[in-house]
Amino acid sequence: MITRQTTREELLKRKETDPKKGRGCQFGSGFILPEEIPKLAKAKGMGVEEWKKQYLDEVEVFHTKAFVLKTLKGEKPYGPCIFLNQENGECTIHKTKPLYCSLTNGEEPGEVIQWFQLTEYVNPGDPSSLREWHAYCEGVKVIPGGRPEEIVGKKRMQEILEYKDLKKDD
Ligand code: SF4
């Protein structure tokens, strides 16, 4: 079972295979952690800023800045990841595949995606992040330890939902 306390190492060990072919790469891409960027840029023989400009979009996830790989969606609302070889369905950066892609190719991708979001983008010190996470958690099954009141306590979460923190919030 995956919980909020599950470590990255444990998740990577659970992964029995790391297939070259990603399940959802035809319809979207993956998140990139800032610390992964230099290695990916180096593998392409590019500078960090050049690589970011060519391959990344900046998005906001639970009020936290995040990077996601560009897709080739054209006019459609979704499209294949920029690193997907559309002829053979393989990831063209398999050797330097980002953590998000490696983890979500394994079992229980829904739970893993929640774990990833909790670990990387839900910021317990940011009331806006917690409010957005709280809204997401309404009506979905959340991994153990991942509900907002489990992260900051019931009383604190109630204060946050009542915007009592507003002066500290941006
Ligand atoms: S980097 Fe590779 S595994 Fe990740 S979404 Fe793109 S094609 Fe798929």
What are the salient characteristics of this protein?
single chain, 170 residues, alpha+beta, two-stranded antiparallel sheet, 8 helices, 5 strands, globular, binds iron/sulfur cluster
Account of the protein in words:
It is a single chain. With 170 residues, this protein is α+β, with helices and mostly antiparallel strands. It has 2 domains: 8-108, no CATH class; 122-170, no CATH class. Helices cover 38% and strands 11% of the residues. It contains 8 helices and 5 strands. A 3-stranded antiparallel sheet has the order 1-3-2. α2 crosses α3 (48-55). The mean pLDDT is 90. Residues 22, 25, 29-30, 69, 81, 83-84, 91, 93, 97, 101 line the site of iron/sulfur cluster.
- What is the β-strand count? 5
Strands of the biggest beta sheet: in what spatial order?
Answer: 1-3-2
Largest sheet properties: 3 strands, antiparallel
Oligomer: single chain
Distance between the termini: 36 Å
**Count of separate structural domains:** 2
Low-confidence stretches: none
Bound molecules: iron/sulfur cluster
Strand fraction equals 5-15%
Please outline what is shown here.
With 170 residues, the protein is α+β, with helices and mostly antiparallel strands. The chain has helices at residues 8-14, 37-43, 48-55, 99-104, 109-120, 127-137, 148-152, 154-161; strands at 31-32, 56-61, 64-69, 84-85, 90-91. The strands form two sheets. It has a three-stranded antiparallel beta sheet with strand order 1-3-2. The chain has a two-stranded antiparallel ribbon with strand order 4-5.
